[in-house]
Predict the 3D structure of the following.
Amino acid sequence: MNRNEKLPELSIIIVSFNDKSHLEECLSSIEENAQDMDLEILIADNNSLDGSQEFIKQNYPKIKLIANEENVGFAVALNRGIRESKGEFFLFLNTDAVIYPNALSLLLEELKINPRLGAIGPALLRGENAYQVSFGMRVSFISQIVQKHFLNPFYKLKLKSIQKRNEVGWLSAACFMTRREVLEDVGLFDENFFLYFEDIDLCYRIRKKGWSLLFFPQARVFHRGGASTQRDKVSSRFEYRKSQLYFYQKHNSKVSLFLLRLYFVLNFCFIRLWGLLKGKNYRRNRKRFFKLLGKIKE
């Protein structure tokens, strides 16, 4: 590295997988709303087949493109971006996110003035007054049920008026800002997660090292959600369950893990029954799900 080279302050890392349709809006929003910021953009593309890499090369030549030869998953792709970045701070951003005015500068300023702040996340919107719940506290079997069925509906209504920043237990990597010092302290994303839960796992490790996490609603980002996973819902659901199981094995009690496995069996049986009633064939997924539970071997 050239000693006289000026390093960027912020490295924006985006993982792309067959989502060319949203890339332009995402990148344009960064250009429009971060003009005065000293930053670099890195896109780790997981072997997209929709022309995403060609689009980036032709229209955004200054962006560093990391062209993975296969779909290596979200955590591995993010880590490759981190290793090739130069910034003091990081922003992890999904391809289907759109930055609103001042959002990045607000998040970055808050990190700068609070040296023990490990990571910060904005309010994520899906419409003018439709909010995504992008934070939470501890994740266990009971807490997930409570959050899904009780807290999330409450938060979606409350977020329309809430302006108070809050310390939380985890933040969504759909839009998540942290600092290099934190990742050097706690390590990068756990690459055993292919998709889902890698952000919650990282947040757990950040808090365990004594850093705080902050939900910061003054900064706002639009996020469609599920852009890269909607095309194959069955496979993405399988990856969710696989990551969920690994997360529980890593962070939760044996009781929580047992309840989760029991839920998997009941849920699969329900899906199977519903599939028969609807005339759909779920047979090809039976082996995958029961292998996940350890019921059958390779």
Remarks:
- The longest strand covers residues 212-223.
- The domain at 10-223 is CATH 3.90.550.10 (Spore Coat Polysaccharide Biosynthesis Protein SpsA; Chain A).
- The chain is about 45% helix and 20% strand.
- The chain has two domains: 10-223, 230-292.
